[in-house]
Write a structure and sequence with these properties.
It comes from Pusillimonas noertemannii. By secondary structure, the chain is α+β, with helices and mostly antiparallel strands. The chain contains nine helices and nine strands. It folds into two domains: 109 residues, no CATH class; 106 residues, no CATH class.
Length: 244
Amino acid sequence: MNTSIVTQPHAKAPVFIPGMAPTMSSREIAELVGSRHDKVKQSIERLAERGLIVQPPVGDEHDTDSMGRPRATRVYLIGKRDSYVIVAQLSPEFTARLVDRWQELESQVRVPGTFAEALRLAAEQAERIEQQQAALTAAAPKVEFVDRYATANGSKGFREVCKLLGAKEGHFRLFLIEEKVAYRLAGVLTPYQNHIDAGRFEVKTGISNANEHAFNQMRFTPKGVTWAAGEWAKYRLRRQEEAA
């Protein structure tokens, strides 16, 4: 079978366009093997780096959080062959479950009834891609400015980065938490280790002059400021699309 999924807001089953291959998201794979999604994504990245699977495209899956608010989760879109490699690496005992899931997905295939419908669906997908590209292009000058600014300066604190990006602190904090960039530790934003390892953040420690208590402070490195500017632009774009 040679088809590809196009997501629609109220579709009861995936819509497939002839000529491309179906995919399964990294989050689906995580649920199948009972593993954390971030761990599955790390395994996918390592396998891609080793050349055992192709570098998968990225997409967004939309759902709601525990408070009923809409959110988008960044996922990898995995082809059938590579999904078996990934599951074999993670939990070989779940291979049978993966086979069942692929059979379920393939049984849900709904091919457009007419050539005109297929063209319409393809055009809608192309329009969404163009809109996303236009928004990112519009944000490019600001990201370029941030890049030059960050290169010329040292690490920045949370509030400094918010001012630099013109972002409200509450919104930017939510972005960092939802995108698994940082988490709260004793009420203080702390970057995840993978982002520290990537050179985007550093954690400064010190002693408060007021009460002599030790404290930690998350700092954006110049590389981290540039990276955050791009991710923030994409995050805002997704939010605008969800609200539309």
